[in-house]
Amino acid sequence: MKTRSLLLGFIIIIYATATALAIPTTITVRVKSKDAKFVGTSMGGALITIEDVDTGKLLAKGTTTGTTGNTSTIMKAPITRGMPISDEKSSKFTATIDIDEPTLVEVTAYGPLAQRQSANKVSATQWVIPGKHITGGDAWMMELPGFVVDILSPPTHSSYNDTPKIITVTANVTMMCGCPLTPEGLWNSNKYEINLLLKKDGKPAGQFPLQYSGKPSQFATPLNIEEAGIYELAVYAYDPTNGNTGLNKTTISVK
Questions:
Q1: How would you class 6 by CB atoms within 10 Å of its CB: exposed for 0-12, middle for 13-18, buried for 19 or more?
Q2: How many CB atoms sit inside 10 A of residue 254's CB?
Q3: How far apart are the first and last CA of the chain?
Q4: Which of 35, 147, 159, 173 could form an S-S bond across to 253 if both were Cys, CB 3.0 to 4.6 Å?
């Protein structure tokens, strides 16, 4: 009995010592839309996971919240080395992890969560030293590529019984932060390709450009349907200056 008690005490001491050695270390993660602003609350934020690379242990999980940031600071002002583009209100996720030795961690960002059809995932690894916080400046910055493309019409799986027929295809297109596209605007839609790729019964059936329809981020094109079949409509946005791309699909049935 005495031996068992001593062993139990020894285990408790070891556990307490190990726990005491763990040092709270704070990590702040921000997710920035490629060529735009931060992915914040207005777009549902981005899901952040922080994992130990060696063990696969989940160290922290949460969602970025806050504003998209200051437009002038992020998109207009000259940026010099070491100059942060975020402020206290800019969207972020902050977690405090307990580590007792240098740990290689992987941060993964997935979003925007309010537009899952356009959500992308990015990840990066970095060593984290106990007690050495990653909070200064813009902290751990992730760049999320893509456009948010949302086909508004025709509704998914619409069915039509008469041909020939003209169907108007409309789509809402924004940056991943929700920033709007307009002709000659800060995100100049004239410089992007916004096109419809059409398939009929699984085979390519043409490509058609969408035109700005008069409201920010909204684009449309008339589509002349002459034959029955199952049509797949894929609308994509593409920036030829940096390769940034987003896409959404829907289908219709014509009998």
A1: exposed
A2: 20
A3: 84
A4: 159
Q: What is the CATH number of the domain that holds 124?
A: 2.60.40
Give 14-45 pLDDT, tens digit per residue.
Answer: 554 445 589 999 999 999 999 999 999 999 99
- In this structure, the answer to whether residues 87 and 169 fall within a common structural domain is no
Task: Quote the percentage of the chain above a pLDDT of 90.
Answer: 87
Q: Which residues of 44-67 are buried (b: 16+ CB within 10 A; e: fewer)?
A: bbbbbbbbbeeeeeebbeebbebb
Do 101 and 151 share a structural domain? no
For residues 10 and 133, the model is more confident at 133
Range of the domain at 230: 147-254
* Domain match, 46 and 139 both: yes
Grade residue 5 by pLDDT with cuts at 50, 70 and 90.
low
Specify whether 140 is located in the same domain as 152.
no
Asked whether the predicted pLDDT for residue 7 surpasses 80, the reply is no
Q: Is residue 16 assigned to a domain? A: no
Read off the amino acid at residue 28: T
For 171-213, give the DSSP string. EEEEETT-PBPBTTSSSBGGGSEEEEEEEETTEEEEEEE-EE-
Q: Report the number of distinct structural domains present in the chain.
A: 2
Angstrom distances, CA of residue 28 to CA of 92, 135, 156, 210:
7, 5, 39, 39
Which stretches of the chain are DSSP H helices?
2-21, 71
Residue 3 forms part of a structural domain? no
Q: Which of 144, 177, 201 is the last residue of a domain?
A: 144
Which residue in 87, 92, 110 sits closest to 41, CA to CA? 92
Query: What was the pLDDT predicted at 131?
Result: 98
Count of helices and strands (H, E) across the chain: 2, 16
